[in-house]
């Protein structure tokens, strides 16, 4: 029997280093979370909806007994994403606030379990990302608008391309981002694109064009982790580094035995009532 749609639903707006997300609880949905995909674009639309880089549903029903909860994660364009660093930090913070999990807990994702630690005193959240894989260095690509560029690549839960430069602001990410993101070399999954400046042995500046958002965002957790991992692998930085994002926020990356830890602020901005008819979902 078809379940009648509700007229309104409670949502939570969170941001982690400028990456913003709409979060919903499974218990508030009238249907299984995997059916919510058609809601994503209108909810995430700037000006017309709540506005966000992505949408997350938290579900305490898990496949593994050791997991505290699982998520359903969607990019703003409605596509599913395997992992999101800042999204996982926001999910962990809300799960703790709502009593779904203790301060140290495990989130179940499509790429595996993610260990999360919420610090109630500092308001920061630390996550242990899945192990980096598919590392490739010094990839030479020829682009239509930029000519020859050298790219580093690693998957830190999602695929990331890195361009190392001393002048990150000289790159037009609106033009360069899509060309690399959809380049045949990275087909069929595509790639996120990061412009990275190594400022010192423990400090980097990162700009990220995010796949699924299809634009430059204020921050990207897995992108920051990928940039730090590449810089460390190439001997440019130490195992612990600070990443300055496009939004001016600070993320802290530590690498231990091929594991990457991401730490930074994750804030609940507001909770509200979403009237579905107002965004065309009646």
Mean pLDDT figure: 94
CATH class of the largest domain, named Alpha Beta
N-to-C CA distance = 18 Å
Tally of separate domains: 2
Largest sheet: 17 strands, mixed
User: pLDDT below 50 for ≥5 consecutive residues: which ranges?
Assistant: none
Q: What are the secondary-structure elements, in order, as H or E?
A: EEHEEHEEEEEEHEEEHEEEE
Give me the count of strands. 17
Rg estimate, integer Å: 19 Å
Beta percentage is 35-45%
Second-tier CATH architecture of the largest domain = Roll
Question: What is the CATH topology assignment of the largest domain?
Answer: Diaminopimelate Epimerase, Chain A, domain 1
**Portion of residues within helices:** 10-25%
* Shape summary: globular
How many DSSP H or I helices? 4
CATH superfamily of the largest domain: Diaminopimelate Epimerase, Chain A, domain 1
Instruction: Give me the secondary-structure category.
Output: alpha+beta
Structure described in brief:
With 282 residues, the protein is of the alpha+beta class.
Describe the structure.
There is one protein chain. By secondary structure, the chain is an alpha+beta fold. The chain has helices at residues 37-44, 85-97, 173-181, 221-233, and strands at 8-16, 19-25, 54-59, 69-75, 104-109, 112-119, 124-128, 133-143, 147-155, 159-164, 192-200, 203-210, 215-217, 240-244, 250-256, 259-265, 267-275. The protein has two domains: 8-129 and 267-279, Diaminopimelate Epimerase, Chain A, domain 1 (Roll); 133-257, Diaminopimelate Epimerase, Chain A, domain 1 (Roll). It is 15% helix and 43% strand. It has a 17-stranded mixed beta sheet that branches. A hairpin with a 4-residue loop joins β12 (203-210) and β13 (215-217). The longest helix has 13 residues, at 85-97. The two termini are 18 Å apart. The model has no long low-confidence stretch (mean pLDDT 94).
